[in-house]
């Protein structure tokens, strides 16, 4: 039987960007020691106190259906958090709890795009973005950025990509994979472009607690943007709760009301015991968030020190998030070829830049997700491997 065109074309050509990750996992399953630096998975697990709250909630009976929009106290807590951090008055009716940020991205685009509409996004991008847009029936349209300008989008580039059927623009700051943070000037350009083109802005802010340089600013806080912006948040990165699948969408109350109806017909909410654990985690305040972010701040400094001691790889210093982007073109290899060769020769797994779009070609993304000493040793080996390739190319 024939499957739908939508599902058959979700990842054109069958490639989904995770090929090196899959190869590394297959090697690990065979008993091969691989240093895994692909996905954004914390090397520390969810704090035991959060797990204790989750256990107590489940044992206390919160294992049945939970309220589809999210339990009221959690929606209130997220709303208060957003109000405090953005200065934009936010209430329960502006919040929908979702099964993680990825589900939030899907739902948000369902809310603003009809089948066949153009949905814009910034390149480089998180690997799932184009497939998510195709999954809702939208037509993905990428907007290229350049390493030379810090991978920041411009108003002109956004407007150049706009077509009459364009309905939305998806941005991500702090950015995965580049680590770029969109400052006020960039966000104001984005806001003007959205206003001129009549676009909804969908802002993926799941790394908002991992800021190393500058300040995170939500575009929802800019004048006139709250009514056209849907913000995606998550407990995954801020609280090391990746497997718990608890996130949210924040937006205008009329949009959230319709999104609640969508959730009723799709996910039917998030387990109550997970939501109560998320509430407990948020109640711990910024101290817990800073403790979870601290290893990545240290490893960023380690990466800067190690990369400064070589001249083959070029690093765009990450302003935020848990990754380092390295330009490997001096080796003569593409990001795909370099990642494959590195895995084969050194048993170090990284993500090729090509997984994140055309703008990241010739780069690799290194996740800073293993213990400090092991991370430093792996990065030094990676630099040595690159230097060997560059020397061979020159000879």
Automatic annotation (TrEMBL):
Catalytic reaction list: L-aspartate + 2-oxoglutarate = oxaloacetate + L-glutamate
Cofactor list: pyridoxal 5'-phosphate
Top-level taxon of origin: Bacteria
Domain Aminotransferase class I/classII large as annotated: residue spans: 36-382
EC number of the protein: 2.6.1.1
Record GO terms (molecular function): L-aspartate:2-oxoglutarate aminotransferase activity; pyridoxal phosphate binding
Keywords in alphabetical order: Aminotransferase, Pyridoxal phosphate, Transferase
PANTHER family according to UniProt: ASPARTATE AMINOTRANSFERASE
Family: Belongs to the class-I pyridoxal-phosphate-dependent aminotransferase family.
Protein name: aspartate transaminase
Organism ancestry: Bacteria, Pseudomonadati, Pseudomonadota, Alphaproteobacteria, Rhodobacterales
């Amino acid at each position: 039987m024939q499957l739908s065109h939508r599902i058959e074309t979700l990842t054109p050509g069958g490639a989904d960007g995770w090929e090196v990750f899959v190869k590394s996992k297959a090697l690990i399953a065979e008993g091969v020691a691989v240093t895994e630096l692909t996905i954004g998975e914390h090397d520390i697990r969810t704090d035991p106190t959060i797990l204790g709250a989750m256990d107590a909630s489940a044992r206390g009976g919160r294992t049945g259906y939970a309220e589809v929009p999210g339990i009221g106290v959690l929606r209130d807590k997220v709303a208060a958090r957003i109000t405090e951090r953005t200065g934009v008055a936010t209430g329960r009716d502006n919040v929908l709890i979702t099964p993680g940020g990825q589900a939030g991205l899907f739902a948000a685009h369902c809310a603003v795009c009809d089948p066949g509409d153009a949905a814009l996004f910034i390149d480089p991008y998180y690997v799932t973005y184009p497939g998510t847009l195709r999954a809702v029936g939208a037509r993905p349209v990428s907007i290229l950025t350049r390493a030379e300008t810090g991978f920041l989008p411009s108003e002109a580039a956004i407007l150049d990509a706009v077509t009459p059927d364009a309905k939305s623009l998806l941005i991500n700051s702090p950015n995965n994979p580049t680590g770029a943070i969109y400052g006020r000037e960039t966000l104001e350009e984005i806001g003007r472009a959205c206003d001129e083109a009549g676009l909804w802005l969908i802002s993926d802010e799941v790394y908002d607690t991992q800021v190393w340089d500058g300040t995170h600013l939500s575009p929802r806080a800019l004048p006139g943007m709250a009514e056209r912006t849907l913000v995606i948040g998550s407990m995954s990165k801020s609280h090391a709760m990746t497997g718990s699948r608890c996130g949210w969408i924040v937006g205008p109350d009329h949009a959230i009301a319709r999104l609640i109806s969508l959730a009723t017909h799709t996910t039917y909410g998030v387990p109550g015991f997970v939501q109560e654990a998320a509430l407990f985690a948020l109640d711990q305040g910024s101290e817990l968030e800073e403790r979870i972010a601290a290893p990545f701040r240290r490893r960023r400094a380690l990466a800067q020190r190690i990369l400064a001691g070589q001249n083959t790889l070029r690093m765009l210093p990450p302003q935020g998030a848990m990754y380092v982007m390295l330009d490997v073109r001096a080796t003569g290899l593409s990001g795909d070829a370099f990642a494959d060769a590195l895995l084969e020769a050194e048993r170090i797994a990284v993500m090729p830049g090509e997984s994140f779009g055309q703008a990241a070609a010739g780069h690799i993304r290194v996740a800073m997700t293993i213990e400090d000493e092991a991370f430093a040793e792996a990065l030094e080996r990676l630099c040595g491997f690159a230097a060997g390739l560059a020397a061979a190319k020159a000879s």
